[in-house]
Amino acid sequence: MASSNVLILDDEVGILNALIRSLRGAELMIAVATSAEQGLEVLEQGDFKVVISDQRMKGMQGTEFLALVKKLHPQVVTIMLTGHATLETAIRAVNEGGIYRLLTKPWSDSELRESVLSALAKYDAGLHAAQGQRTVARRHREQVQLEQLYPGITAIEKDSSGRVILGALSDLEGNVIKSRLDDE
Taking the complete model, does pTM exceed 0.70, yes or no? Predict the structure, then answer.
């Protein structure tokens, strides 16, 4: 299956078609499913950023499905669509499914489009943050390795005004480096 960035799950084909029409022009690759089981299968075959799920479906409710999505694919941003919005549904969707947005049927096309585009931006921001965390962790490991090989190399000495003192630099440029090279 080609890489898709949005999966829409609803057990009513007419609703799926209407949702796809609503998102026309947003330059999205959309995959659809008509059951939670099918949705999980489709999710395993593609690279999804956003999942939109109806709440009331045969078999598995949307809150249960989105909770499974979050467990199996924590980076995916989820949106719930329901025609029966209650406070209890909203609380369950947030607490169990970790949803990003809750939209009601009938939906506003512009609100749906904005929600999906916002969810895609959230997904991308999460990827950038994760990359930044990996970079920081890698640099920390490198610093620890340097300290183990050359104790004190990463230490920074400052004077009372906070300026960095480079005192031993001249020794490193001449005598220390040369004597280490001579010892080899």
Answer: no
pLDDT one-digit tens code per residue, 2-40: 345 899 999 999 999 999 998 887 778 898 999 999 999
Query: Where exactly are the structural domains of the chain?
Result: 1-184
Confidence of residue 183 (pLDDT cuts 50, 70, 90): very low
Amino acid at the residue 182: D
Q: How high does pLDDT run on average in the chain?
A: 79
Under 8 Å CB-to-CB from 1, ≥6 apart: which residues?
31, 42, 45, 46
CATH superfamily name and code, 1-184: Response regulator (3.40.50.2300)
Cβ contact 6:30 at 8 Å? yes
